[in-house]
Amino acid sequence: MKKAAEIFSEFLEGKSLKLTPERATVLEEISMLRRHFDIEGFYVSLKNKGLKVSRASIYRTIPLLVESGLLEEIKTMDRHTYYEYTFGRAHHDHMICLSCGKVIEFYSPKLEKIQDEVCKKEGFSGARHLLEIQGYCNSCGTP
Question: Which of 11, 59, 76, 98 has the lowest tally of Cβ within 10 angstroms?
């Protein structure tokens, strides 16, 4: 099985780009995260670690990681964008609290089956999907 760095490097080569040291650092640091993150928070965490990666490099690299399939983008109703490293992780969907922003991961075989059936019925070949349920967590309650 290929490593994330190999996949990303090959992806970049296909776009006539290189895996620069900054891009490699961004990928390495993101691969160690086990949580959802936003770009600014990620930038601050790199600075706090003393890593020399420019904000611009992060903003340019993250969309490339999304396009390569190593990272997933999650947009909330309030237009805030989170990211999640998905390489080597099982597929799952998200519930997002509209009050506190908490993100809850879940997997439902029943929902997956329904999606497959809908695709089959419509003659559609699904490659991937993002499911996001927005509402309120137990801590926040109903508005």
Answer: 59
pLDDT level of residue 1 (50, 70, 90 thresholds): low
Token pair in block for residue 66: 């999304």
Phi-psi region of 141 (alpha: psi -120 to 50; beta: other; left: phi over 0): left
Query: 42-53 pLDDT, tens per residue?
Result: 999 999 999 989
- In SS3 terms, 41-88 reads as HHHHHHHHCCCCCCHHHHHHHHHHHHHHCCEEEEECCCCCEEEEECCC
- The burial of 117, by beta-carbon neighbours within 10 Å (0-12 exposed, 13-18 middle, 19 or more buried), is given as exposed
Q: How many CB atoms lie within 10 A of CB 67?
A: 12
Rounded average pLDDT over 10-17: 95
Dist CA 99 CA 107 (whole Å): 22
Query: In the chain, what are the domains?
Result: 1-89 (1.10.10.10), 91-143 (3.30.1490.190)
